[in-house]
What we know:
Elements: E1 5-8, E2 14-18, E3 23-27, H1 29-51, H2 59-66, H3 72-107, H4 119-132, H5 138-160, H6 167-191, H7 194-205, H8 213-234, H9 237-240, H10 244-249, H11 254-276, H12 282-294, H13 301-321, H14 330-352
Antiparallel strand pairs: 1-2, 2-3
Helix pairs in contact: 1-2, 1-3, 1-13, 2-3, 3-8, 3-11, 3-12, 3-13, 4-5, 4-6, 4-7, 4-11, 5-6, 5-11, 8-11, 12-13, 13-14
Amino acid sequence: MFRPVVHPSRAGGLVIRIPIVGWSTRVQLRAVAVSLVALALMFAVFAWSLAVGDFPVSIRNVLLSLVGQGDADARFIVRTLRLPRGLTAILVGASFGLSGAIFQRIARNPLASPDIIGVNAGAAASAVFVIVILKGSALQTTIGALLGALVTGVAVYLLAYKRGVTGYRLVLVGIGVTSILESVVSYLLTRARIFDAQKATVWLTGSLNGRGWEHVHPVSLALLVLLPASLFLARHLKVLELGDDTAAGLGARVELTRGALLMVGVALAAVATASAGPVGFVALVAPQIARRLVRARTVALIPSAAIGALLLEASDLVGRRIVAPTELPVGVITAIVGAPYLLYLLARANRIGSGG
Length: 356
């Protein structure tokens, strides 16, 4: 039978087992509670973002429009004009939060996030190359950003590999690669015409303005595949945190597992960056907030994804309304929130003489 068996865990939480496939997992009740609260807050912000704008819609009409009811004008404003942007914010934020949690747990370093170790910079350099040199369309820019992020992620991993990958070396190599790629971006911008430079600069800031269903679908499909893959591989994270020698002694295939997790994290960050641009700091901050709220020593992947979605949705709403009718790109808001936190992490790492 596929009926799961649930019983209390001695370490806290619940253990869920499916005997016929030999699969089991431990669920922390606090992590579930944090995820549910974050998702509830995210939905409230999401509904609010659909209601406000140049043509305000009541929350009641927003909820009716989401289920295909209400008047025609409200349905058009909500479902056609605002819903794709809101869903893109949720999906991109969840992807960044999940990716950041994977990187930070593998590296055992709070600075290890895709925007710090070069993945976002690779997407940016590739996208600017498509915009400035190839004069590519929006679709070609998205594909270029995706390929650039994937190639950069693989390159950083290979450069950091030396009989294994340590978190501190991964961060240092990533920072170096990021600096190189930022120089490439600066050079490309000096070669660009005014219109292309403006277009590239807007993309580099990270924005959800003008996002449609063509941006929603790729991130949805990516999460549909990569979220279960990350949860399946996450059971090995606890073993990897014991160190390579101990993990190998316990029978774990260390490099294969670490490489698979890194590729999942890179793919999540790549798809998110391709859809919304290199939105900074969400992948850095969301996992840290999740771990502090959950408290228990758990991988906290789902809480990180939920908080990432909440952060990006709230940041986009603030960017739209804080100086309305002018909109600020969401990347500006996340930078205002995330940059002080990055400075705090760097100061803390300097005090304790390690990577965090």
